[in-house]
Amino acid sequence: MQRLTNKRILLGVTGSIAAYKSAELIRRLRDEGAEVQVIMTRGAEAFITALTLQAVSGHPVHLHLMDTEAEAGMGHIELARWADAILIAPTSADFMARLAQGRADDLLTAVCLAGDVPLALAPAMNNRMWRDRATQDNAKKLVGRGILLFGPDSGDQACGETGPGRMREVDLLVNDLVDMFDVGSLAGKTVLITAGPTREPIDPVRFISNHSSGKMGYAIAEAAVEAGARVILVSGPTALPVPDRVELVNVETANQMLDAVQSHMPVDLFIATAAVADYRPVQVSENKIKKQDNIMALALEKNPDILAETKAQFPGVFTIGFAAETNDLETYARNKLMNKGVEMIAANWVGSAAGENDGTFGSDNNALQLFWQDGEIELPMASKSKLARSLLAHIVPHFEDYQAKGLPKANNVVNLKDPGKPIA
Length: 424
Ligand code: CTP
Hints:
Number of helices: 15
Helix content: 25-40%
Bound molecules: cytidine-5'-triphosphate
Low-confidence stretches: 409-417, 419-424
CATH topology of the largest domain: Rossmann fold
Strand content: 15-25%
CATH superfamily of the largest domain: CoaB-like
Radius of gyration: 27 Å
């Protein structure tokens, strides 16, 4: 399980022989799902190249404070804001001293001062330098300011001596860093969410669509990121900003949405909030259709049911559908639960039935009724972001039960479209 999904780690590398281990540390952090950016001090450059750390981190390495090009891209304040945590590994005795003084005369010290996130140091130096009163005073001062010390460990040192001062092993540093964060209820899980309306073209200037704003789906995407999941958001056209840390896939038609969803399957959780157009024009006119008679008929054909088809092909994926109803909400919601073969349906009133409930399209608030095979619960009116969190809080225990039962993984199931072909 990836324990650092969605986490942004700023790794500082200072001048110590242990800097050669930073490349492995970055690799391990990325294996855990973290995004890593690196700042090197001048001292670090004597031990490892920026090119190496750029290659393993997948980002340009930040080197200098007054580099106009770098500051125009991501300057020290942006870097400090970007990070969820700063880890300096290795931290030299000199860097500890400069940090203890509150200096800001290079990029890394400036970022540490500007950062409002947890800061951890992994000291690495000769054992006598570590034991020296000056270093010990600095360490005490830094810990007193809430800075964490990971290590140092004791053992053989690069200088040939033995004692405290070795940088902590990379795996232990990764564990230390993981412990700094709360583990979310969906840590290590992948959640795919469909949102917004679809657009079904009639001719180059017209389409069939609906009033869906996408707000509920986007709010669920944000709540799932908060809960530690990797989130793929397959969205029809909306006016909403791209949520932070979400992998957004833009689509227009139902068929495009189906392709995008299935190309990302299997995932752990599939939540279909999209208001998919049930029908599309049989023919899309190449040219703009001119007005003619008083009455015009448009032939429509059924769109694929993305939710039902995906669940049929990937039965191991815990799946939640939505239902917007103007009447007989419970009956329709329960029918959908059965007909589509999904684990849960989140239903809400729309149109005049929503009344003072304010659950209409485009609203910032909503109320939901969540149904599953042998139960239901009402989630009262709240802002869509609050409601999304509460919805996930109710979904997660059912999802965990489902996973504990060890239902078939998608890779083991038959491809219904082509039984001879395994599902990728
Ligand atoms: N859905 C889908 N693909 C479709 C239609 C709907 O994935 N072609 C999903 C929606 O994202 C939602 C649920 O199915 O999760 C809604 O179920 P559906 O029965 O299609 O709702 P309506 O379109 O409102 O159906 P009806 O008009 O019969 O009430």
